[in-house]
Every structure is written in C-alpha cells, then in structure tokens.
Amino acid sequence: MSPVSLVRSTAAHGRPPLRTVQVLGGGNAGSGAHVRSLAAGLVARGVGVTVCAPAGADHAYDFTGTGADHVPVPRSSDPASVAALRAACTGADLVHAHGLHASFRAALALGGRSTPLVVTWHDRAHAQGARAHLLRLLERRVARAATIVLGTTSDLVDRARRTGARDARLAASALPVPRPRPADPDRERPKVRAELGATGRPLLMAVGSLDTERGYGTLLDAARAWRDLDPAPLVVVAGEGPLRPELQRRIEEEALPVRLLGRREDVPDLLAAADLALVTSSWESRSLLAQEALRARVPLVATRVGGIPDLVGDAAELVPYGDHLTLADTVTALLADPARRELLRARGAEQALTWPTEDETVTQVLAVYDELTQPRPLA
After folding, report:
1. What backbone phi and psi angles, to 5 degrees, belong to 318?
2. pLDDT at 173
3. 39 near 65, Cβ under 8 Å?
4. Within a 10 A sphere around the Cβ of 260, how many other Cβ atoms?
5. Comparing C-alpha atoms, which of 127, 143, 146 is closest to residue 135?
6. Following DSSP, what letter does each residue of 140-159 receive, concatenated?
7. Tens-digit pLDDT profile for residues 78-131
8. Residue 103: which residues within 8 A CB-CB, separation 6 or more?
9. Ordered strands of the 19-24 beta sheet
10. Is residue 94 a contact partner of residue 49, using CB atoms and an 8 Å limit?
11. CA–CA separation, 233 vs 332, rounded Å?
C-alpha cells in the first residue's frame, strides 16, 4: 500500500491523520529546502505539518505555501523559546528536528514526553577550542535523546552511532526540482557573463558562506596561478560571512581575479553562465552546489571530503582539501581540455539521475513515521 493510501485509509477507519512538527533553526540552504520539500510532500499525503522555525526562515522558504502551519520560534535555547516549542509540539504524534541546534531544542522541549523524536543531521557542525567540546556534548545529548537519527551521508550515520544513537540510518535528502530555465538560455548566458565582467574569459563559480570551513583561502592561493593564464579566468563567489574583509583585502593586495558577490538570489542563473563550478570546503554532506552543477551540466571541481565522492561518483574532478597547487593545476588542465569538460557534463547528467527524488525522500521519511506511530499488535 502506498503512503498516500495508508494515511487516508487510517483516517477513514476512525484514526485522525498523522500530525507532525518539523523543527528548524536558522536553516542553511540544504536543510531549509529539505524541510520545505518534506512539508509539501507530507501535506499532499494528508499528513498534518507544523513547521517551527524563525520568521525569516518562513519568508525564505514559504512553508505556509505548502499548506503547512508555521509557528515562529527563535533560533535560541532560552526558556521562552523552548516553552514556545514545547507548546507547539503538544498533541503531535511525532516531532522531526533538522540540524544539531534545532534537535537540541526539540529534545529540551520534549523532555518527559513519550512523543517520538526523529532527528536529521544534514551536515557536520564545525568549531574549534572550547566550542568544539560544547558541540560534541550537544551531539551526544541529541543522539541519545532521538528515537531515530537520520544521516544524509554514511559518515554522519557512523558519527551518530559513535555518539550514542540507539538507531541511526542513512536517509539522503533530495534537491528540490529546479525552477524552469529561461526560454532562451543561450541569450541569457552572455548577458550574465557581461554583468559579471567575464566576457571573453572563463568564469569559475563558488557558492557558500565566507567562513573558514569553505576553504576560500585555498581558492585564493590557487587564483594566484590563474592570473598568468591568457585569458585569466574570473572567479566569482556568491555568499556572505565573517571572512569577507580578510578575503577582500587579499584580493586587492594580490590583484587576484576574484569577485565576492555577496548574497545572491540568482545562483541558478550565475551557475548556468559558468564554465566550471568549484567546491573547496573542508567537509560537505550533500553539497547543494555540487548537485546543482551536475544537474545544470556544469563541470565540477570539488574537494574529496565527506559525502562528496559518493554524491558525484566519476562525474567531477576531485582534489585534496587545502591543496592549492593540485586545485590550480586541475582547473588549468580542465579549462584547456574541452573534450574532458564535455565528458563531465554528460556524466554529471547521468549521475544526477541516480539521486533520490523528492517523492522518494518523502516516502522514505513517511515510512519511518509509520514505523514509530502505527499501533503494534499485542504479543
């Protein structure tokens, strides 16, 4: 029986429809898009969904547009926020939290209740020093409090098991279906490239917050080598963050062919105009840029870390993290080899077809919900 018929048939036999609460913190691009997709799929299957997230997250992802309810809950673990979350979870059949901090707040809110708690780890928290120790404590608390931990990569599942999870499973999240492209993308591409200053030169693109985990220092180191190419490629980085002043200073002092674009709402258009996509992070689970690049048939160069190798297979050039020489040489060779770029485009499109669809992701998650909420026969 399909999930749709299962939900409807249980409601028809006197059981009310399943009611779930989805808990999200600030929501990075991956987890926010996943919750939006999950809410839409669950609502379509007759499941009641309440999304507890900051007001800004609903503005960004339009949870209410899926038919879900939205309860604004600040990204904080103070007593007032936990109390608001506890009230929103009252009467829920199941609570599903996304990300470490949201999961910790959900565990606090459900303290003493028998409501099942499902936790999805979309990414790995990064920190150093005393904060790293605090994050390890939070991971342990969340892993032990959760009924089931879902990890989007196998190493996240292993991490959950090492930190005390009773039940940890692999549950890759799907990238939402991309919005329709312009009717004539060949006309849009030169326009975007001209606006960026990349007419007559290769365009390389990276996306992500400007922080230490993204490896942008390595990217700038590699860009020194690209200055000597003719024509020199332009590297554009879409994102904002605490390292912007430091990175901008290096770009200016070293005359690097790099532009920091800040936050952009037109990343798909920028990516479609790029010759190569770059992921230089120290760790990624299911990198959004990697997925979008392969779907858009843009050749990808990425670090061999986290879930990236499993995600891209042989459809990208993989380099060690922090190795600017290998990164520079790999990009230079790829720019000089149109046949290799065309092969990666074809492989990327094929690889994207192997990823779970949004419908398959919702079906898998709903199967977990059914497992935790369906009445069990008496022994």
Report:
1. -105, 140
2. 82
3. no
4. 18
5. 127
6. HHHHHH-SEEEESSHHHHHH
7. 899 999 999 999 999 999 999 999 999 999 999 989 999 999 998 887 767 778
8. 23, 97, 117, 119, 121, 142, 145, 146
9. 69-72, 48-53, 19-24, 94-98, 117-121, 148-151, 168-170
10. no
11. 9
Answer whether 40's CB lies under 8 Å from 75's CB.
no
Q: Name the pTM for this structure.
A: 0.86
**Which of 55, 54, 46, 56 has the alpha carbon at shortest distance from 20?**
46
Q: Which tokens belong to 56? A: 């800004």
- How far apart CA 134 and CA 126 sit, in angstroms, is 11
Q: What is the pLDDT of residues 276-334, one digit of tens each?
A: 999 999 999 899 999 999 999 999 999 999 999 999 999 999 999 999 999 999 999 99
Q: Which domains does the chain have, with CATH numbers?
A: 11-174+356-373 (3.40.50.2000), 185-352 (3.40.50.2000)
The single residue listed with the structure tokens 């042989």 is 314
Q: Report the SS3 class of residue 255.
A: coil
At 293, list the tokens.
């690049």
